[in-house]
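In the previous lecture we treated proteins in isolation. Real proteins rarely work alone, and many bind small molecules. This record shows how such a complex is specified: first the sequence, then the SMILES for calcium ion.
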Amino acid sequence: MAVHRIVLLFSRGLLCLACLTYACTSEPPGSRSVGSDVATTQEGVPNGSIVNDSGYQEMSIDTHTFVEIPEGAFTMGSMHGEFKELPVHDVFLDSYWIAKYPVTVAQFESFVEVTGYVTDNEKGEGCWIEANGIIRYDLDWRYPNFDQGLDHPVICVSWNDAMAYADWFSHRYNVGASLPTEAQWEKAARGTDQRKWPWGNEPPDRTRANFADRNYLMAFGPDQRNVDGTIDDGYPQTSPVDTYDRGQSPYGVFDMAGNTIDWNYDWYDASYYVRSAAKNPIGPERNPIRRKFEIEGGWSDNLQRSIRGGAWTDASGVLSVEEGGHSVRSDMRERTDQYSSDDHLGFRLVIDRIDRHPRYVPASKPVNLETGTRDGPKRLEYYFDYVSEIERQLVMTWGGTTIPLSIRTD
Ligand SMILES: [Ca+2]
Ligand SMILES: [Ca+2]
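The predicted 3D structure, ligand included, written as tokens:
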């Protein structure tokens, strides 16, 4: 039995525990109870933690490193992006610990070796391969159409897969791990001063982030995502998670801009900021909109989850609306069906004390909304047209005009 480094606690001054082996996993997944073997310093800081170069507490759980984001308010959303980033609003968050890096190929491989876990991709959902603009059913996280080092972020994993990893991690180390809420993610990325990118307001350069740069352009040619061919960030696809030292967030968190876009916990709702809770928001209870897919007939649950931070396939974020939401700006919001997998979509963990919504499992697996290629078939075109219609109406509503939605929201 392997011995692991000391674990953990929940918040400075709160409960803490030294957990040395696999054997301390008797609590159910997601448990917030960590026992009474408190292992803190006089100040309540967990033993084994350090102060990182940015001045924030950092602790290790096995191969995972977490940074403490102190409690307090920050300003979420932006005036320089798309309408779904509005309104700009203040949010108060309790302290939480967010992973310093995305989950790597090596870490996911360990999880699969121990559990035998099979991803949604491998169960038949396939993985979206951006360069080809197509779902591939013969590729998975082990080989997503290009070589990845073990220290690269794992990709071709769904939201369900990411939550399964979080459950396993929670059980194994007796902590309450999950995916970050949108608010937790955004605060960890941009801090409290409304900066556009984790490092500040200077546009991304070769030392800050991995995005669609000259290498991407040479490998795949121009596409609709505004490739910046003047910058060489060193990578046409994913990069090691600790590559961009100068791209760290104010808290010392890596890869919040680019490399892989991160799954967030929240159901995606373009208008959520209008009604978001002021403290510890966790997203809508359910995605409020059910969509009608005439081609399939009947109704399908909307299973879109929020994704944040942009990827190696995305624009630098210097542009605003023209980038279509696909950029590495820290306030950018995007979404993907929780069953789908992409070759530029990964995840990182968070540890907190916030109760989340009950896990939702659809009664029957809805149609795969993104089956097909970028140019067809018809179903995919219809899907994107439909989302655009929703968003256009929201803009008009916010502009002071009440527009009856043509969508049903039963
Ligand atoms: Ca790149
Ligand atoms: Ca990222």
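Summary for your notes: The domain at 8-285+295-363 is CATH 3.90.1580.10 (paralog of FGE (formylglycine-generating enzyme)). Residues 255-256, 258-262, 309 surround calcium ion (ligand 2) (CB under 6 Å).
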